[in-house]
Write a structure and sequence with these properties.
One of its GO terms (cellular component) is plasma membrane. It catalyses: a quinol + 2 Fe(III)-[cytochrome c](out) = a quinone + 2 Fe(II)-[cytochrome c](out) + 2 H(+)(out). It is a multi-pass membrane protein. This is Cytochrome bc1 complex cytochrome c subunit. With about 260 residues, the chain is an all-alpha fold. It folds into two domains: about 45-130, Cytochrome Bc1 Complex, Chain D, domain 2 (Orthogonal Bundle), CATH 1.10.760; about 130-230, Orthogonal Bundle (Cytochrome Bc1 Complex, Chain D, domain 2), CATH 1.10.760.10. Helices cover about 55% and strands about 0% of the residues. It has helices spanning about 1-10, 15-35, 40-60, 60-65, 80-90, 110-125, 140, 145-155, 155-160, 185-190, 205-220, 235-260, and strands spanning about 165-170, 175. The radius of gyration is 30 Å and the shape is elongated.
């Protein structure tokens, strides 16, 4: 004990212990880094992020900025999450040539792998809503059609039409039809709020209620048209008015034609 005490008071004891501590920290860091680098999932994720970054620089940075910070014509993508990218790019709304108009659904420019890479890159910039998994989207098991119909009428019908057929909004904008939309994209739209749509957080509409909404939309999508042409399912009053206007107009046209022939 006396010998150790003598060494501890030595002038070189402090620097020696510092060197030993630094070596221990460096060794621990190298071992931990090697362990992470050897993880297949970590390597795959890093590779996807880098691939997404390259795609972003080539196809998106001219509007959204080199670091996704946004610009004069496009918003920042920092914090929007992977779900927003998957929705916008997966439905073909992005990229778009004219940012002054409403983005329309069209054939996607990037395939599924490229879209996933873009989403991974944007998600790496800051936390945001994640892409829902198949386990989350089990609306057939966890959803309720009756509850979904009530939620839709209270929160969605004023824009998307009471039957989900879409409708006009102000300033030349519109709410698109929900018929034929994949459940994943409906869920992503609810949690990200694209275009003029508000964000429905889990506190506003819970994940279980979102599944009920999807289940009702799919039920409405598969409902048969017993009356023939749907005309957007905008209701019997409007459909009846259209029939009367066309019918009476046709009768007036026939009457005028007969009068002309009689002369």
């Amino acid at each position: 004990m006396k010998r150790l005490s003598r060494y501890r008071r030595h002038r070189a004891a402090g620097p020696f212990l510092l060197v030993v501590a630094l070596l221990a920290i460096g060794t621990t860091f190298n071992v931990a880094s090697a362990t992470v680098a050897q993880s297949p999932n970590s390597f795959a994720r890093t590779s996807a992020i880098e691939e997404g970054r390259q795609i972003f620089l080539k196809g998106c940075s001219s509007c959204h900025g080199l670091n996704a910070e946004g610009g004069a014509i496009a918003p920042s993508l920092i914090g929007v999450g992977a779900a927003s990218v998957d929705f916008q790019v997966g439905t073909g709304r992005m990229p778009m040539a004219d940012m002054s108009t409403q983005a329309m659904r069209k054939a996607p420019v990037y395939n599924a792998e490229e879209t996933a890479a873009l989403a991974a890159y944007v998600a790496s910039l800051a936390p945001g809503p994640a892409i829902p998994t198949d386990a989350v989207l089990n609306y057939e098991r966890d959803g309720s059609t009756a509850e979904g119909g009530e939620l839709f009428r209270n929160n969605c019908a004023m824009c998307h039409n009471f039957a989900g057929q879409g409708g006009a909004l102000t300033q030349g904008k519109y709410a698109p039809t929900l018929m034929g939309v994949e459940p994943k994209y409906i869920y992503e739209a609810l949690i990200t709020g694209p275009q003029s749509m508000p964000v429905f957080s889990d506190k506003t509409i819970t994940p279980a209620e979102k599944l009920s909404l999807i289940k009702w939309i799919k039920s409405a999508e598969n409902e048969p048209n017993l009356g023939g042409a749907t005309m957007g399912r905008i209701g019997p009053v409007t459909e009846g008015l259209l029939a009367w206007v066309l019918g009476i107009g046709l009768l007036i046209g026939i009457a005028v034609w007969l009068t002309t022939k009689a002369r």
